[in-house]
Amino acid sequence: MPDYNAIETNKLGKKYRLNKALRPDNLREAVSYFFKSPAQSLANIIHRNYSPSGRELWAIRDVDLQVKGGEVLGIIGKNGAGKSTLLKVLSRVTEASEGRAIVRGRIASLLEIGIGFHPDLTGRENIFLNAALLGMKKAVVKSRFNEIVEFAGVSDFIETQVKKYSNGMFVRLAFAIAVHLDSEIVFIDEVLAVGDTDFQRKCLNKVQALSESGRTVLFVSHNLAAVERLCKRCIVFDQGRIGFDGSTSQALEYYRTNILERVTG
Amino acid sequence: MNKSLKEDIVVIQPIRVPFWRDFKEIFRYRELGFFLIWRDLKLRYKQTILGISWAVLQPFLQMVVLAIFFGRIVNLPSQGVPYPVFVYAGLLPWTFFANAVNACNYAVINNAGLIRKIYFPRLLIPISATGTGLVDFLLAFLLLIVIMLFYHLPLTFGIFGLLPLTILLVLTGLGVGALLSALAVVYRDVRHIVPFLVQLWFFITPVIYPATIISDRFQFLLNLNPMSGIITGFRAIILNQPPDYSALYQSGAIGLLFCLAGVLYFSRKARDFADVV
Structural domain of residue A32, as residue ranges? Predict the structure, then answer.
């Protein structure tokens, strides 16, 4: 296993503003707001994060995390605990509000299945488009094209528009693209929940193979059995912070007793 | 750590990065830009019988309508050349500009799903929207040559003068498009204003009438509109007349200013598009 940190974060945080009134989002509001409180609107223009009384929500905060190259890290937590936000900040979809992170390597991120797929394009066309969206070179996609198609099991439908695909075929194709590209880091966010058991097993094997080939995987899932199988290490998110970071068996234990219990009890 | 990894280190911090980093990123993602253009072209003409010939038919039909109304019925002056040629020479750059501005506006909305889920340099959205229009522009240009031959207008090497003008046109379209589409994300109303604004802009630009019908005293006002100098320049070159350089420089400078302002504003606002789009 290569010895370097693929991901390092230091006090990483992402804040969302809940009180919309402080930041008008249409012209009428902006104009009337300017006359009501000119000082505040000027402050907004000068400093875009200024909000003295607006309610804020820290989706994640004080996240300190080191992920070694080649490691498969499980991320669990309740809905809204910050798992997906972390992946979004790390993949630069959205900006961090505080702290710092260093990412070494390109990220292929499966935040949602089939994002960037266009229903009117064929399977073949979508493979190239989707790979480009994940930042991959056309040449790489070409060389792996058959592998992708075969893994997804859609060889007979590759010239068919994906709107005619079944749900399963769609998911399989999207997953196949992301895991066959040459990015060093792969984010998988709850995508294994779809597809039949046969394909799920295939995916799990593929994720394992990825890590063996030195790829770093961040694996978000509610499927605790899958996390247990794939990851040696696991973090538990609790209300935007890392509640636990350690071996998967201990993490699951922590999750079951401290978080799930709290909800039911 | 292998060599390729060293090039792919990204530092994530809530500080403003210098804008030229954005251009480096765009260059890295240039293949995606071409894919987005290819996708838009492919989708636009999919399931149409006439396919890509629409790119030529649209400006042609527009020319016919305008030639009948303003050439025949209203009898607008056309600098001593047949009105259809006169109007098409203006329509060609105008259509590009109008399509670019509208396309940027729609592109940000249509790609909202992508913006929320995937990272890529956001400026690629207006750039590829403008690029798609450029393909249409080139096809429509072929029709211009046909029309010129039809009316026995001399086709000289002077036509290469259109090249720098086209670059200026593309930059202006991109700038205005990027500016308005970023504004439309921040202020939703702008989304609905844009098509109306473009229509209004058409009438203050000398497309269907020559710039000379405006009195000399107000020419400077006309040339505050970047499209005005570009279109009169296009027309002069196509009709083999000396272009009005002072108008061109004035409009050109304003066009470039629009480009700079639009691109910078867009790339600044795009940093939190994922949270607001």
Answer: 19-54
pLDDT digits (tens, 9 = 90+) for B226-243: 999 999 999 999 988 888
Long-range Cβ contacts of B79-84 (<8 Å, 24+ apart) = B79/B210, B79/B212, B79/B235, B79/B239, B79/B241, B81/B151, B81/B153, B81/B239, B82/B151, B84/B147, B84/B151
Q: Would you say residue A36 lies in a domain?
A: yes
Parse chain B into domains and list their residue ranges. 21-276
Q: Nearest-CA distance from B141 to chain A in Å?
A: 29
In the chain, the amino acid numbered B137 is F
**Three-point CA angle A43, A48, A53, nearest 5°:** 65
Nearest to B14 among A26, A97, A133 (CB): A97
pTM of the predicted structure, to 2 decimals: 0.86
Distance from CA of A154 to the nearest CA of B (A): 21
B222/A192 Cα distance (integer angstroms): 60
User: Quick check: helix, strand or coil at residue A153?
Assistant: coil
* Residue A74 within a domain: no
CB–CB contact A2 B14 (8 Å): no
Q: CB-hemisphere CA count at 13 Å for A166? A: 9
How far apart, in Å, are the Cα atoms of A71 and each of A58, A184, A231?
27, 11, 8
Q: CB–CB of A91 and B119 under 8 A? A: yes
Chain B residues interacting with chain A (CB cutoff of 8 angstroms): 1-2, 5, 8-14, 28-29, 31-32, 35, 39, 42-43, 46-47, 113-120, 186-190, 271-272, 274-276
| pLDDT band per the 50, 70, 90 thresholds, residue A194 | low
Who has greater pLDDT, B6 or B131? B131
Closest CA in chain B for residue A11 = B13
| DSSP secondary structure string for all residues of A33-52 | HHHH-HHHHHHHHH-TT--S
The CA angle A127-A183-A176, to the nearest 5 degrees, is 35
- Tokens, residue B221: 């006002």
Q: Which two tokens stand for residue B256?
A: 């470039």
Question: Model confidence over B97-110: pLDDT tens digits?
Answer: 999 999 999 999 88
Q: Considering its fold, how many domains does chain A have in total?
A: 1
Q: Give the distance from residue A115's alpha carbon to the nearest chain B alpha carbon, in angstroms.
A: 6
Contact B8 A101 (CB under 8 A): no
d(CA B120, CA B31): 11
With beta carbons less than 8 A apart as the criterion, state whether B183 and B108 touch: no
Residue A38 lies in a domain: yes
**Does residue A49 lie in a domain region?**
yes
